[in-house]
Amino acid sequence: MRSFSILVVDDFEAFRRFVCSVLQARREFRFTEALNGREAVQKAKKLQPDLILLDIGLPDMNGLEVARRVRKLAPAAKILFLSQESSPDVVREAFSLGALGYVHKPCSKTDLLPAIEAVLGGEQFVGKGLEFGTDGQPPHRHEILFCSDDQAVLEGLTRFIVAALSAGNPAIVWAAESHRNRLLERLRKAGVDIDAAIQRGTYIASDVGETADPVRILVTLDGLSKAASNGGTKHPRVAVCGERAGRFWAEGNTDAAIQLEQLFNDLAKRHKMDILCVYPSPDAKDDKSAFASLCAEHSVVSYR
Question: Global pTM?
Answer without folding.
Answer: 0.64
